[in-house]
Fold these 4 entries.
Entry 1:
Amino acid sequence: MSQRVVFNRPGPPEVMRLEEHNLEAPGAGELRVRHTAIGVNFIDVYHRSGAYPLAQPSGLGMEAVGVVEAVGAGVTGFRVGQKVAYATPPLGAYATVRNYPAQRLVHVPPNLDDAQVAAGLVKGLTAWFLLHRTHRLVPHQNVLIYAAAGGVGQILARWARHLGANVFGIVGSEEKREHALWAGCEEVFLLSDDYVGALAERGRMHVVYDSLGAVSFERSLNCLRPLGMMVSFGNASGAPPALAPSVLLEKGSLFLTRPSLMDYVADHAELEAGWEQLAQLMIEGVINCSPSQEFALADVVQAHRALESRQTTGSTILRP
């Protein structure tokens, strides 16, 4: 008997419940994976709350690491006992074991820790496409990262610094400032600071990675130099305001994009390319994705409460 988290309507963390269910044999093109560690991401909150509507009832979670238990018909390249991971839908990672499409799985090197992979696969692939696909970062460019003490923020900062960029961070509290500095930011501002003016003195930004949305969007645009790139990749504070294209012209022919990881890894070759780069940096110790918090799968409600109340830093995982 396996266990999984489900919810029947959008709402607060309490709508989630852990239930037992009988898992069928994997179908054609699928593997059965027994999870060893499960990633928790803010997109899970969007799914659960209804910000990103789902058909109900629904499972939750799109990131996990585990061991192959069974192989469905037509699957090649995988065998029972191998360590694998995934970071895309179909949702349902909040479970002890599940069936998952083989074409969306990646192999995990045996010398990588399961917890680190579960904590860093979605976030690390997000950093990869933001730095290498959405905006191709080059040495000496000025980069501003919001929520720089968060899971994605810390990986972004570390990777951007590795690429030779000048990295600046925004955090919500003094306590989180130290985490952002540790991750690679050379200077960190509080969201309440006049960081627009301070960054203007440092030459303004080539690119801004804004995961907050409503509370920061306008200031982010004002931090950019002419021809700069505004990357709005999250709505933690609510959706950004509507923007007339003429505003981008007035501020120096700026670029604006609202990217999604799913589009950048829709092709399996791209997924493999991103994972190969991320895994190598993890093995080399350039990027440390070790989780800052762990919760039991049965304590998923507490995990979501902590995430939404900004009580967490870095990454969070669930243990089946």
Note: The radius of gyration is 20 Å.
Entry 2:
Amino acid sequence: MAAPRVLRPILAISGSLRRDSINAAALRAAGRAAARDGLVVRIDDSPRALPPFDPDLEPVPPEPVLRFRHACADASGVLLAVPEYTFGIPGAFKNALDWTVRSGSLYRKPVAMLHVATPGRGAHVRDALAHVLRAHGAEVTHHAVPIAAQDRDASGEVSDAEVVERLRAVVVELAQRASASRAA
């Protein structure tokens, strides 16, 4: 599967605030692998810096919100890796999504949801996130790439070659959708 040429980076966002989370590690591995295809994946950790969503601030949103909205709008596509917390979307990540509604920065944007939990886990967040992203008008696909403990090295990075290749394929597919939507 050859990667198409995309002029803007793919924005990758982990729904976990833990810096050493498996979701963040998956995004880093996907970005490194996709770089071999000439694709640029920019990891964004804005959700940790955003204030709680407040509609009263919408007329003049805080600077971190404006930067996040711009990053989403400017990306050719968005790659998400979001863990399940209490049968749903982690609060800080849902807050980030709430800040993008009025801007329309995810409208008609190709979004790939990367599910790295072992089979049988995380169905609630997958369904909830798909529902929220569809409400944003995003063009959502779901990709299950389970990552087990043995797929990571001593520093926590994804090291299993087969898993890394599957992560690369997700980014390439997202880039193809982004290229096709730009051409349409």
Note: The first strand starts at residue 10 and ends at 14.
Entry 3:
Amino acid sequence: MSNTWLLGEKTGNDRIFDAVADKDLAFKITIALKENEVMRVLSKIDHNGNVKTYRLDANGNIIAEWP
């Protein structure tokens, strides 16, 4: 979930617009990304159904457990 992946900088596939299908909302989210106003959270579920959540940085790297 890096900014480049979300915005499709390598592929041209803007995943934000694809997800929200609203040009104005996609623009607002893109601005929030660029101003670092978005919290990225990854959820992982193990084979027993236990869920762990992690915060990610702007490059999509796990930086801490969340919350």
Note: The beta strands are 40-45, 51-56, 62-65.
Entry 4:
Amino acid sequence: MSGNHLTDEALTGAIRKGGQAREAALKDIYLRAGLRETVLKYILEHGGSRQDAQDVFQEALLILDKSIREGRFEGRSMVSTYFVGIAKWHWVTVRRQRSRFTTYEATEQESLADEPDVQVIQEEERTILQNALNQLGGRCKELLTYYQLDYSMQEIAQKMQYENPDVAKKEAYRCRNRLRDILTTNIID
């Protein structure tokens, strides 16, 4: 163990085990000293903002989780090194997608993101989404949270006490459709 953190072996084992052990392992990674700073520094040095770094960090955590659960992480490097590699790769992908879909230069994008109007719109979007999630009800909201965190249908079925993964998949589909309907109604009204 380094500090109060799990060893790489314990961490990967807990993620593969699932449930509360997985959640504790992901929290351990999330709170590791230096990881967030390393990702932040890289993103800032490569045309991103602090918000970009936060988004990339969270996405990298989801990708790492899935990679470990699916057996793609083979332990040839430290988990933290692998995580930073995922974050860097993801940032390159994000930048490539942005350049494909916009004509703004990176500096123009950053200055736009700091504009008060853009911040107000982003806050309104978050509020609309949160209100829509609240209208869904507890079960759908919980299921979609697990779905967003990239839990497998087997894990969702266990956590939500569904008969099997197929039932969880049908419920996830139903809940996503309900959320889309609520959002559509709220935006049109």
Note: The longest helix spans residues 165-188.
